[in-house]
């Protein structure tokens, strides 16, 4: 098979991929060439096309499906594909670009259903109404956006998938520590990253919006709750507490939260968020590493390398 | 004179003061006594009343004016007043509690006029309307609140006095560096601490509200701008930039700003805020210090002691 | 009732307490007096006995049960008891000092049973044998020691109670994240603080041993595993991994771990440990605080004050 | 036009530039080539000459003016010039290398006059004499040196230009905050970076001297004041205060100041220095960025990227 | 014996001490009393005189020798002396205040001789001349000043005693690592703290001068070398290197050095300084601690407590 | 001569080198090539072989001696060798790979003898027996391993050479500061890095073992002492102290020590270790630098560049 995640130097491929990004360049001899970042559901690879025509340059745009024939080589310890020939996909190939991007392992419907099961468990009426209103307003984006541009949950539906896992852990912790308030914790988990639907540009090839950079998803989420509570005429301590959980969920001021957690549920929200993000990253990197060896250093995990045990999994 | 700021161990007093706070205690011998924090416009002093009746305890509440006769002693290197006798003020004494709290050196009308002069100079219509609307909504509090609970501008009208000085520096810097946008900078200066009218409890004896602790004046101000812009149907980049200036005015994430300054005016706002707060603190402390000596260590000035030159002022 | 945790200034008491610590002093007038720290199951209080005889000084030693008659006063914002008279407990009072110290809410047998249920679930034979051997060796101490000298789980059986809760959270997380290895995680949780049985002096009135200060519970636990594995002739990757989890469970070098977590289970162990310790501290402090107010600043929780909601619990 | 700052990939040029630095290299095929860093008043560009003779290598030295014909390409996201042919400038071309380096927007005479206007305003005679003596001694270098090797004011006359702007801000602040001592502040601003005339090698292509590295401009300036005060027989508190302002002007120990600011004017000097340096960097970077986009990350501005508003300037 | 360092609660004394500092106070009952800090060669103790006359207050000044009769009590875990009666020393008592202050274990002559032995070993003529000139200029102070106000070597002749030990370690390290330059290292050791003769007020009861606070001993020493080298017409790399060693001897910018060590000898100077200061503090504190126990936390040793072994010394 | 450390761009060589590492690559044109890292006793160099056969690839393995003919070029400011032809060494060349790796300047026998001289000086019998037992167990590795993978003492016998120098400094300091315990300090120096024999893979081309990464040399050494003391039935304070010195020898928690130094000898051990490592690095780098210039920035020396004086060595 030609799954990108499996390609090794020495492999030859002849298959379809989606262009994620493309760049034009000029060799030191002055000839044009192109760098394509090709992807399928399993990953991406840098590819070089050393001979290009004007027409090629027109055609090789992001979001285009192409069939390539080429070889994988090792360039400075990284895999690189040298494209020999290519053609763009035709309608009769019967392919859909959507099938060439990474997605959460659960589909949107399953995620929606799972999350709604928890919405029902929000016993506080005001909080449930706020959550429902915001899911109505941003449901589409909420179910398709990634949770981040890079690092963890950086794939289609990553945001909802992340929320789904966090809710499961929250439920378990509320069973073990009954002093935690379920309504507050579930509401805040569902909404904690809702601001990402404005901070990021979209489900695929996402990047930061200007608003994302200057205001940030934490304050965007806070603004949305302010507006929705005003619309629904909801007042009271629970709104303030919900906002506090959103504002403090990064745990420390230096991570961009304007307030540190100052109630129990805020503290626990931060831990649940962290555990799910870290499990996702550790699983992803160790699964790509041989047994008995270490991963590369992982920047968002404090630049540590993780060991994958010989037999112990 | 009996100005509190001038009292020294050895002095005897017989004059009126305002009770700021009061506490009941019991001596190691089991007898009740009271600790009163007395104030006038110039400062405050801790006072002890070693013999108290039940009636005294009823009467000696905060915000009460009393005439005390007593002596100032040195207790562990701090001044303390030992009250011999006291009586509460009567109507015929013709005194007003307002005259016994510290105030800004300019009165509310002068501050209002000065600040409105700058409002007129906000050329961008959207920004001027937002500023006017919020000054209408919170004008009373804006003109009477302190800028902080302790440290700098911790007196009646401290907030507006701080804004007034910042505007003057902003005007000078805009003259020197014409690439700065006056509309944006003036608007943000006027509103940067407007959230304090909800973060703090009031002009006198102020402390933090629950909302102040859990949400904080930065996000409160942001919320107010969100609401007002929605009410006035104002949209556009300027609203986002104004919010960015408010959100980033503490300069660093670890100081509670959820975003660092990312436009020129945001960077300069942070500097102007800092300069005025620091000038206020340095002037206050050095004016209370002898020439040729150092002040005590001042915590919000990185715990430094400042030198007051012999002749050089 | 005379439960120490409930005493307020103004209360009079006549009941039995246990002396935790005692100090002799001399008043500024040169007369001897004694300070006693009295405790019952609910807490402790500082008490003063202003008139003492030579015989009193002999008698008032730590671990002694006395019946005191006295009054609670407010001394510098703290409760203090002024003892009028006292007598030591007699056999006919039928009291046991053990009933006057704070204990975990579960008894030793229940804790033992619960933890053994998890030992059985350690599928890896080598790890199960190491765990059993160490529980045999240090079972008594393991079931009675606190988990710390101050801060969290600082009561009789605190260590086992902490382990018990951590195991429950571990089980939930292993269900949610099946890539985690249960054998490794359960073994490490049970043994992670086993070194405390040598780091601390005992279940009651505990303090650090010299070995605790110079070597520390992390390396002590590592040494015990080294010895037991040698005794049982157990070798292999699992021993190294178990030791790695113990060594890294403080999460960061600056918290005293000689290695950072470098396998998944090590990372998760650190989080589970943290969650249980923090839940314990947050519950303890907020339960002693009025609704709608903040706790004092809690040093091990980054010196934050926590809010107890009005209605939201 | 062929201004370097405006060149884009795809442009062809045929014009004069100054060689800033040059390097010889050998291609992987073993052939010699040269890398030239070419500059004009607006900026610099890296250029490659792939075919070079021995004579070329002799001729292509720094500070040489050459006329080049070539094309601008994109190499790894940076502009690079591929030189086709070149010749050195001849006398009849009538060009002066001085016109090919970046300079302050004000000329030396205007800067000198402006700064002398402030010297006159130094009312303290001792301070004015020290300032005049040092301007006499190092006037030439003071008016032509840059203020830094990179980052801000890194151009001919950058040092005096920086001082000129700082003096204007100082004057404004002294008007607003009359407790500031003008004599002290103006003197210290003029001399604060005078040590750079020995720390750096010269106005063009500047780098650090050995003395600059081992002693540094702060202590060099202090030494010069020590010597001049001794020569002029000036003693007294003002000399000590002036030296303190120089020594503390980096604001914090970790930025290389051996003392933190401990008088008002020292604190304010640090802020004025910072504001001017930051305004210079922010203006430079945003002016090279499209509206509605962000600059690259700017290292000396805490690695932040700055936004240039769409319409708001 | 009545050596202050040996006094314990319960002891009675009748002997001569020197008043180090004295304070007047007023009891809560309004009566005057005095606090005296008494010293002899071995240490100091706080003493209270609860009944004082006007004449007593005149007489009990710092630097006065008095004979006291009193008792040592325990006050809040610290020793305190309660003075019953006292009289000032008379000429016929034949006592000298000098004998009541702590001194280095070597006398000034021995220190001078030892240090001069190393001066002779400075082979570089320029450096030797600079060192000799400065020892001539400040010899008296150099031999009597302490090396610090508190912490290490805070006794008469502490500065020279510290230098003496550092020279011995330097000699040993130059034998082991022959690439070190002896002339440079010896010169810098002798002069590294010479600025303290102006930073501190004197050999006894020392405190910081204004110049010490605003300029600091590092830059003061640098200035002195600048002046002496100018006087002696000495130029050359060695002067710059010597100044670099002085400037960088605190090792890090945040410790007040304007430059980090950038030559070998500078790095080693910092280590030698550190070793001697730390040995002095560790020896002092452990010698006052019982075997098998820990010292109090020692602030300048990163707040660590040190263990004194049972048998192992 | 063809010593690698002396090679400069432009040099031609024809001599024997040892292959340290080798990599296969493919050029952008798709042709195979090889990168060899060649070494001799003086250093290493990267070499390229642009035309390779299948047989060449088989033959060019690490630890192989080859005779190469080639040229040294400059590639991006680094030396690179372009290999023209090569042959593998034959038996008749009479060469030994051991002569092509860097070694300590003293041979193993001399190091052994020197270190045993200090073992004899360990007066405490328990400590001497522990040291002897561990030297017996790991003598071979102890005498041949490097002290580190990179940075300091990263050559054959580097570990023993480092210990040898540290012992000499320890002896000198014990002479100067007689309160230090020689038995403890010598024992700890000899064993402080003994864990490296399991942390690293071997004397040549060393890298970290899995145990090295997950457990680390500090705890490995601690384990070995635990085992040996158990075997020899040695108990007592000295074993605990020895372990404390090993555990704390990195000086700070953030450098991987689970405990900070808490006895004098532990503090001094850390300093001696640091001095020797730093002298080694400073000497190595400055010896490769021209007089009057600075070294490159040296990462383990806090990224400082060191100056090599013109005349002053």
TrEMBL record, chains A, B, C, D, E, F:
PROSITE patterns: HD. GO terms for biological process: rRNA 3'-end processing. The keyword Hydrolase applies. CDD domains: HDc, YhaM_OBF_like. One of its GO terms (molecular function) is exonuclease activity. InterPro entries: HD/PDEase_dom (IPR003607), HD_domain (IPR006674), NA-bd_OB-fold (IPR012340), NA-bd_OB_tRNA (IPR004365), YhaM_exoribonuc/phosphodiest (IPR050798). This is 3'-5' exonuclease. Keywords: Exonuclease, Hydrolase, Nuclease. It comes from the Bacteria. Residues 162-278 form the HD domain. The keyword Transmembrane does not apply. Pfam families: HD (PF01966), tRNA_anti-codon (PF01336).
């Amino acid at each position: 098979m030609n799954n990108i995640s499996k390609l090794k130097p020495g492999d030859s491929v002849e298959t379809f991929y989606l262009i994620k990004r493309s760049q034009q360049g000029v060799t030191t001899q002055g000839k044009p060439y192109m760098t394509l970042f090709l992807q399928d559901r399993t990953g991406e690879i840098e590819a070089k096309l050393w001979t290009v025509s004007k027409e090629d340059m027109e055609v090789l745009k992001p979001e285009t499906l192409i069939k390539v024939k080429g070889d994988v080589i090792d360039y400075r310890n990284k895999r690189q594909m040298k494209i020999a020939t290519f053609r763009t996909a035709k309608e009769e190939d019967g392919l859909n670009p959507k099938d060439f991007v990474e997605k959460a392992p659960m589909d949107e419907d399953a995620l929606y259903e799972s999350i709604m099961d928890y919405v029902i468990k929000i016993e506080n009426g005001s909080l449930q109404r706020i959550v429902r209103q915001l899911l109505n307003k941003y449901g589409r984006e909420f179910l398709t956006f990634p949770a981040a541009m890079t690092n963890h949950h950086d794939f289609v539906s990553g945001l909802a998938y992340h929320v789904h896992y966090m809710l499961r852990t929250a439920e378990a912790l509320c069973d073990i520590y009954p002093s935690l308030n379920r309504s507050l914790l579930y509401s805040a988990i569902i909404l904690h990253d809702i601001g990402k639907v404005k901070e990021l540009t979209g489900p695929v090839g996402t990047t930061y919006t200007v608003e994302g950079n200057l205001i940030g998803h934490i304050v965007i989420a806070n603004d949305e709750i302010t507006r929705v509570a005003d619309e629904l005429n909801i007042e009271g301590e629970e709104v303030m507490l919900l906002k506090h959980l959103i504002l403090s969920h990064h745990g420390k001021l230096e991570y961009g939260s304007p307030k540190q957690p100052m109630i129990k549920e805020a503290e626990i929200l931060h831990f649940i968020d962290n555990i799910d993000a870290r499990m996702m990253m550790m699983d992803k990197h160790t699964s790509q590493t041989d047994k008995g060896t270490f991963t590369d250093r992982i920047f968002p995990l404090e630049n540590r390398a993780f060991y994958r045990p010989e037999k112990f999994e």
